[in-house]
Amino acid sequence: MSSVHTPEAGETLADLLDEIPADLARQAFSHASWTRPRSESYERLAFLGDGVLALAVSSHLYPLLAEYGVGRLTKVRAQAVSGAACAEVALDLGVPERLREQAPEGDERGFEALVASERVLSSVTEAVIGAVYLGCGYDRVAAPVVAAFAD
Length: 151
Hints:
- This protein is mainly alpha-helical.
- Helix content is 68%, strand content 0%.
- The protein has helices at residues 13-17, 22-28, 43-64, 70-80, 83-93, 95-102, 108-115, 118-136, 138-148.
- Helix 2 (22-28) runs antiparallel to helix 8 and helix 5 (83-93) packs across helix 8 (118-136).
- The N and C termini lie close together (7 Å).
C-alpha cells in the first residue's frame, strides 16, 4: 500500500515521512504517556492528519464515483479510512518499529500493548499524515495518502 508510487508525484507516504523534520517525526511517534506536556505526543498531529486524510480521500472519490449520492460516498470513504485500514497502513509504514525507537526503556509490556492496539496504530497513521502535511504541504501529501489507502 504505502509502497505504491503515485503517477502524479512519484512519491510514497513513506518517502515523505523520511523527509520531514526530526521534531515532527519524533512527535508523530510519541505516545501521550511518554511526553510532558501531553500536547507533544502524536494526538494533535492525529487530529490534523484525520482531516487531511478525509480531504484527500474525499477529493479522490468525488469525481471517481460521480453517480453516488452523499450517503454512499460517505460509506465508501468511511470504509477506506477506517481504523482497520489505518492500522494496515501503519504496518506498511513500519509504525511499530518507529514507535519502539521513541519508547522509554524498560516498558516492554506497555509498548507491546500499544503496538497491538488498532486504535493506537490508526492514530499514529493519522499523526504521520498530519506531520507529512506540515512538513511537505497538501499538494505533495494528497496523492501518496490516496495511494497508501488504495486497497
